[in-house]
């Protein structure tokens, strides 16, 4: 498969919305990010022009998030240079992912804008040639250097024309040297104020040494103008390092944690597996324990520790390890799992895209005449590839929604009008099976703070999945309630889904090809619809034999036109 063939396949498609634009943006940077190959320069130029057009459809922060996704490896200096001249957020994300050879970096860096060179200085994995070029160009960390101590002393020293007088301890306090009044403001000392500050401090010291009454309040005492820091109550610990003796009793912990944990017997905190591991002097890995005591350490923890042995005799004398909060572990695990899934999907998309490109070339006879039988097979392969890629997109979307890294696009739409329109479309598919929707949707509007395309996708995912699982002769009742502060769109479950214990995990697939719940079945589609509803502040849940979708409605003030536009 040549580079230009796949590129031509992508460029033949037109992005009609932001979601399609994001998909094509990913495809183009995936293809252009490969190492330079021979090919049609005009085709490559068209690809960069398409990227510019897509950039106008996709916000800069979204483009930066796409470019910053793990899994990208930009090995093409042309693409890296193009990204270096893009928006600062996009340029920073691309230059962090770029993987070029030393000679390529040495040739490219002088051509980059100065701002982009600064982004590269923060990388620690650049080849030696790149670091040498950055040093030669004078690119350094963008941080102010610390002042030299001698310079600082010179700045704070009193001016020569006003030398500091010698102050003897026996000199009585005068009105000039007395502590300032409470209402006197304290400003930062400059060159002319150092002498005054020294005299005030010395006068305060003499007054205290002579037994005079101290100032009435802390505000009257001379002090450096550094301000008071409100430290507040220390928060809960998230992790700390400790050591234990051969019996499993904690004998050391870092910092301020020691008084709260030293003396604790680890064998009393966990399960029998922990006790057995300590008695057998085995490593302790990913064990859950519960700490009691001070609020800073109370709660569930994950224990990891390694046994220690003396160097000469090999005698066991305890453990050294680390404790970390369970909540942080769960969040990190969920994010890591979602990241691994996104990387896997990225690796799988490449061969599927290649198969789809080959099939389209054969089916469209782009390289010469092809028998009709082979064209038919190629068309089937192209269709299956598109179906698989759609499944990959749904998996990626579900992983991002459940990990909290993706939110539905905000906007304005009428969910009731969307539901009525889609129910009419699906009635024509159900009619040949003598099945139907018994819809009670009313005439009221249901304004939502969702983009039109997002709301249409959510409604279609729910209705098409229900319609696909509906058997011949079955009637599905639909109700839409907009009386409260949220809509409640309820549908009775078809018999095939009604018998399932968990409707969000069933693998039911439609018996005909007219409607598809996706390659993963009805349960996955409903789970994705639930994640979309939760992302928009709503919920999708089962209530007996019904499935209820709840979404927050816009208030009258939010749906009213702006005053300056009210007159048209």
TrEMBL record:
Comp. bias intervals (Low complexity): 209-223
**Family annotation (InterPro entries):** HisK_dim/P_dom, HisK_dim/P_sf
Give the EC number: 2.7.13.3
Identify the residues that the record assigns to the Signal transduction histidine kinase dimerisation/phosphoacceptor domain, covering every copy: 336-404
Database matches in SMART domains:
HisKA
SUPFAM superfamilies xrefs: Homodimeric domain of signal transducing histidine kinase (SSF47384)
Going by the UniProt record, its keywords in alphabetical order are: Kinase, Transferase
Q: Where is this region: Disordered?
A: 144-234
Gene Ontology terms, MF aspect: kinase activity
Q: Where is the composition biased (Basic and acidic residues)?
A: 183-205
* Enzymatic reactions: ATP + protein L-histidine = ADP + protein N-phospho-L-histidine
Name under which the protein is recorded: histidine kinase
**Quick check: keyword rRNA-binding in the entry?**
no
User: Does the entry feature the keyword Kinase, yes or no?
Assistant: yes
